[in-house]
Amino acid sequence: xxxxxxxxSYCFEGNVKLSNFYLLTCVLVYSxxxxxxxxxxxxxxxxxxxxxxxxIKPSIITxxxxxxxxxxxxxxxxxxxxxxxxxxxxxxxxxFFIFKIFEDKREILPYLVIVFIISTEFVNFNGGIRQITAxxxxxxxxxxxxxxxxxxxxxCVALAWSFHKSALIVIIFYPLLNKNTNLFENVKLQILLLFxxxxxxxxxxxxxxxxxxDMVISILGYSGYLExxxxxxxxxxxxxxGFLVTIVIHFIIVFNSSKVKxxxxxxxxxxxYKLFFIGTLIYYISISSHMVGRLNYxxxxxxxxxxxxxxxxxxxxxxxxxxxxxxxxxxxxFSHMIISPSSYSVYYFTWQENExxxxxxxxxxxxxx
Length: 369
Fold this sequence. Notes:
Blueprint: H1 2-10, H2 16-35, E1 37-38, H3 44-56, H4 58-62, H5 67-78, H6 83-101, H7 109-118, H8 121-125, H9 129-146, H10 150-161, H11 173-176, H12 187-200, H13 207-219, H14 230-234, H15 241-255, H16 257-264, H17 267-285, H18 290-295, H19 297-300, H20 303-316, H21 320-339, E2 348-349, H22 353-359
Antiparallel strand pairs: 1-2
Helix pairs in contact: 1-2, 1-7, 2-6, 3-6, 5-6, 6-9, 7-20, 9-10, 9-17, 12-15, 12-17, 15-20, 15-21, 20-21
């Protein structure tokens, strides 16, 4: 992925068609690997089962899931292709919209794919794939917020909604992100707010307002989340090394945010940063709430993007201290996943399915995210 994005960036000015070829190759190779996976991602096996159920009785799936997701199922099934192609197509859509954001700034893409892998974000992308797909489409639509093109923005929201109903919530960002505020320029204030929210992460402050979110979740058609208690979903949270690594990365990104935005001088980046910073605060305040965490995807999901932008900035400005520090933190995070693998962070090819089941087993939940 690094090689193809690097080549795409290198030849973009002189040969756009060749540059596009390299990008397409990158997306196709990634999609092929993700399509042939077993295990990677918390809900991978559930989505593979969706495909099998659709072949037997389509109405089981179409009555419960969104139109866009079901349309992909329908197309792949009617072409006589397998579940590997289905999973690959979903991965293609996700990465396509992420790359589309930076189609005119392709020098960013090599850094983006590096952080995408070593930050283990690719594991999250293969978890709740419907919402992640909606998230990627929304991130692309931020350009229409910048351009104040409501029609195109709503078209993107409609497409995102066709993969996950929770995408409707992003409509509120259109008027909100149009307002300028000094909050996102005052780094000292951001650092202070981040520090306060981290301190609050160990408290139950969010519990008092969770009840008010019940109605919102029900309206979005995901009241099932309410049945999954925080104890079940966050009982495995360890405030140890991994948590500390995430904290330090957040501080590095926020501390250098004004310089990074000034360096790139890009309205998409400036606007997206507002979402990312707010999402980071919410991430810590609501770290014990699965419900809020899922809705926060549409903001804090930009975490790996700003990690990549920061890394590129450090490299280009020869800021060795921050570049080495951020790189080591990501490597430490990736190494932890390799050393302590779980059933959803390991990659097995489809022909190794039996081996995966023997080692990890799996349980198909009644529904998937």
